Amino acid sequence: MKTLIAILGLTAMLSAADGGALFQKCAACHGAKGEKAALGKSEVIAGWKSDKVLDALKGYKAGTRNTKGMGAIMKGQTATLSDGDMKSLADYVAGLK
Prior knowledge:
mainly alpha, globular
């Protein structure tokens, strides 16, 4: 059983894309270092803690978050992200300063 759990965890980690690669899609609006207010509306996301980014991504994907009218745009951007992708992306954004 422990082996199965370890294999499933490793599979999930390997299937999640690299946060930096995922962020390339975000950079057009948020800036290369997360330094821009996307479309002049959002907060600057550089320096957000990983948990805050992850909560925001999950909320946008679920359609329950609509900060500053960005819900529909961000729902489309997050639609194809797996849980692992969102975690990788959140960790990457948390490292942006």
